[in-house]
Fold:
Amino acid sequence: MTAAATTDSNSPDNIRALIEATSLKVNALLSGDTAVISELAVRYLIPASVSLLAVFVGYMVAKYFSRVISTPVCKRVDETLGKFIGRIVFYGVLLTVIGTVLKIVGFEMAGVATVIAAAGFAIGLAFQGTLSNFAAGVLLLVFRPFKVGDMINAAGMTGRVNEIDLFTTTLDTTDNRRIIVPNSSISGGTIENISFHKHRRVEVLVGVAYAASLDSTRAALILAAEALAEHTVHGTDRGYQVILASMADSSVQWKVRVWAATADFFMVNEKLTQAIKQNLDAAKIAIPFPQMDVHLHRVDAAESVSAPTRTRPRLRVSA
Structure:
């Protein structure tokens, strides 16, 4: 019986009648028929206005609840987790309001769910990269290799984390550039959390001349490290070290290591380099540059007769 009713409603006569009725309504509306206008207002305009107003109120309520719930979590637990929870609450409340409004105005939610599922499948095939970013964003928020405010090096970019979204992560570089990186690029590579630890080791490599005394060089480098005592972190496996590293082609290599607070890393690195140069200059210890000595040996005629294979001048290069 249902199939027959459906067939009858889709018959050419019924469709023609529906078109004629619609034309009459439009003509009456254009002619200013108050009865038709009142009927359309009661049947369509007022419900649509009420629905839009309800969605707008739901949007404001969703923002309010998102802020109320996320703010304490950001202050007391973690800013990254707080923003994530706030976003979940916002979309959850907003979708609930929209679903309730659609049900009230007469939409069949089962049909809507079917359409959404079919559309979701098609969208999933079309936006595989976007879904991979979403999955990577969830992993970043769950395992939290970094949080908002951390300085990281990921996906070939270095910057401070401004926001971790479900699809992208926003970084601010040291020269104040805003960079938005897809989450899949971050989770699929190596992540370096530069500011994770409170302390970092500053290491300056310096080469001195072979003629310089080892004891004098070590004393000068120790003075350079001790000049940064106020910025040095002391304790077990901390402090400073002066290490004789290796004997290179043109110089003797030394390493000067100083532990400092992570926030002071670049400042300490510059000050340590400056102190090393000044102390080596004061001790009259040279810092050589790579060089090469070229020696030219000429073969005379007597040697040419006794050794026919050496008839031309040859060039010997020694470092």
The radius of gyration is 38 Å.
